[in-house]
Amino acid sequence: MERPEFEQWKPKEVVRLLALVETERRYYQEIVSTLPVSLLIVGPDLHAVSANRQFRLRTGKKNDDILGKPLAAILNVEGLDELAKQVVSTSLPAPRQDLHWAGQPISVTVLPLRNWQEDPESEALIVIEDQSSAAPPLTPAQAKAISIADSFDGMLWELDYAAGGLTHASAGAEILFGYPVERWLKDPEIWALRVAASERKRVDEFYDHLTTSSGQLFSIEFLARHAQGRDFYVRETVRVERDATGKPLRLAGLTTNVAERRELESQHSLAIKSEALQRISAKLAHDLNNLLMIVAGYGEELKSAFPADNPLHQDMKEILGATERLYSLTTEFQSYTRRPVVQPTITSIAALVAQAAPRIKKTLSPNLTLEIAINPSIAKAKIDGAQIEEAIVALARHVARSMSDRGILRITGENVWRSEASDFENSLSTGPYVRLSIEHSGTIANTQVLEPWLQSGTAEREIELGVSAAYQILKQSKGELTSQANCFYLYLPVVSEAELEVERARAAAQLAIAPVVAETPAEPETTLETILVVEDEGGIRALVRKILRRQGYQVLEASHGDEALRVLTESGQKIDLLLTDVMMPGMNGVELSQRALAQDNTLKVLFVSGYTDESVLEAGQFPPGTSFLQKPFTLGSLLGKVREVLDNSAARQAASQR
C-alpha cells in the first residue's frame, strides 16, 4: 500500500482526514483499553511501542516503565523473545503457545502489524490471556452432579453477593419460571421479576434479614410470577457463605414449586373444618332431638287428656305440629353433614317403585311420560325402603330436569348376576342383584351425575344434592349407582332364601301376636316383657318409662352403660329387650350392647338416637340382629317398634323349631 501524497490535497481535505483519523484512533484505543486480555506492541527491535490498560494492570507497570524498553526486560517469559523475533521478521502470525509467567499459566498469541515505514520488518502484537482462572476439565463425578442438578424438579442457583448477580442457574430455572438460563445470568432484573409484585417487599425484607443475621440456612415461601404471567407458590431455601468478619460472600439456593403441596394442605385444612362442623352439627342435632322428644312426648300426653272439642286440644296439636317442623329442620341440617342411618328390611322392589311413581309424576312436565316395566319375577332386596325410594325420586328428578320438552322417562327392573369378569359394576362383589334402570329418550346435559352442583341455583342444588345422597344410600346398602349414556343403573342386594324363610315365619307369628300400637292405650291386664331402658337424658328416660309401663311392660332403667351392666347382672330378672341410646357419656350404646349380648345372647337390642357418630359405628352397620329408631319419635312409633323387635324374636324362634 502506497502512502498518500498529502502535498496534492487541499488544506481542508487534509484537516478533515486528520480529524477522522483521530476520531477512529480514539475509538479503537478505547476498545483496546477495555479488553479483558493483555496487549503489547513491540517494534522490529523488540522494544515496546504500546500497551493497553489490562497489560499495565497485569504487570503493575506504568507507561514510562514499558515504552521503549526491551521485551525481555518487561516480560520474563521463556521463549517469548524468539517467538516475537520470528513474527517481525516473517510478517506471519505464530501459533498460540501455552507458556508460564511468574509461575502462572498463560496463553500467548503473536500477530504481525504494519508499521507504515519503508521497512521490510513489521511490528508484533503480543496477546496474553491469563489461564489461571480457567476452570479445569470436569471429572466424571462433577459432570454427573451437574447433570443431576439440571434434572432436579426445581431451580438450583448461586448468587455473588458483592456483584449482585447470579453466577449459576440450573436448567430447572427455565422450567420453573419460563426464563432461559442465559437470561438469568445476564439480566439482573429477572431476580426481581421472579417474585409477584404483591410479595416483593416481604421477599426483600427476608433477604435483608438473612444477610445481616448470623445464621447460615434460611427459607421462605412466596407467590412467584412465571414469565407467562401466571402466579404460583414456591419455597426458596438459601444458604449463606460468609467471610471471616461475617459479611456475606455468596448465596446458594434451591427454589421449588410448592403449589400442589399448598393445595393439598388447603384441602386438608378444609377437611378438618368440615369434620369439626359435622361434629358440632351432630351434637347440636342430638341435643335438639332430645329436647324435641321431651316436648313431643309430654305434648301427646297432654293432648290426649283433652277432648277433641276442647280448645286446649287444638292448641296442643299446634305445638306438636311445630315440633314436627323443627324436627324436619334438624333432619335437613344433618343431611348435609352426615350419612343417613340405613335400616334395611326385606322389600318388594315392584311395590317400592309403584309407591314412588306418583311422586315422580309430579316432577315431570306435561309433555314427559313415565313408563314403568318391572319383571313380575323380580327378587326382593334387603334395603331401607324409604331411603331407596328417595334415591329413585332424586334420580328421576335429575333425569327429568335434563330432558328436552318431550320424551319418555322409563323405569325397568330385572334380576342380574354380577361375576368377577364384569368390570362395569367393578365395586360389587360376585352374586345376584336387582338392577333398576332409569332411562330416557333424550340426552343428559350434565354428565357429573354423581357429584352435587353446589354452584347451581337453589332448585338445581336441591336436585343435585339428592343425586349425591342417592349415591351414598346405594353404597351404604351394599349396592351401587352407575350411569352410562342416558341411563342410571341401581344395583340392590338380593335377599337370600334363608332370610325369606325367617320373614315368612315372622309374618305368621305376627298374625298370632297382634301388637298393641295405641297412642293412648288402656291400662293392661297382664304384664308383658321386661325392658331395660338406658338413656342419659333424665326427661326422656322418665317419659319412655311412663309410656312402656302404662302399656304393660316391666321397665328397668339406667342412666349410663356401667349402671346398665350392673342392672343386667344384679336384677335377677330375665330381660327381653335392651332399649339404649347410642351416644352416652363413657360407654356408648354399641359397646354396651356387645357386652350385654356376651352375657345373654337371646337379648334383643333397640337403639334410639338423635344422631350417630361415625367414630362410634359406621352408618348402617349396627350389630346384626339389632334395630334402630330415630329420635324424636311418637309414642305410637316407639310402642310399635318395641313390639316389632320382640315379635321378630318370637318369629325366629318359631322358624327354628320347624
Descriptive key words:
22 strands, elongated, alpha+beta, 4 domains, 20 helices, Beta-Lactamase
Structural overview:
With 658 residues, this protein is α+β, with helices and mostly antiparallel strands. The protein is 44% helix and 23% strand. The strands form five sheets. A five-stranded antiparallel beta sheet has the order 2-1-5-4-3. A five-stranded antiparallel beta sheet has the order 7-6-10-9-8, sandwiched between helices. A hairpin with a 5-residue loop joins strand 1 and strand 2. Helix 11 packs antiparallel against helix 12, helix 14 packs across helix 15 and helix 16 packs across helix 20.
Total domain modules: 4
Helix content: 40-55%
Q: Specify the biggest β-sheet.
A: 5 strands, antiparallel
CATH architecture of the largest domain: 2-Layer Sandwich
Helix-and-strand structural type: alpha+beta
The CATH class of the largest domain, by name, is: Alpha Beta
As laid out across the biggest beta sheet, the strand order is: 2-1-5-4-3
Residue runs with pLDDT of under 50 for 5 or more positions: 421-425, 444-463, 510-524, 614-620
Rounded average pLDDT: 77
Number of strands: 22
User: What is the CATH third-level topology name of the largest domain?
Assistant: Heat Shock Protein 90
User: Helical element count?
Assistant: 20
The radius of gyration over CA amounts to 47 Å
Strand content is 15-25%
Output the CATH homologous superfamily of the largest domain: Histidine kinase-like ATPase, C-terminal domain
Straight-line N-to-C gap: 133 Å
Overall shape: elongated
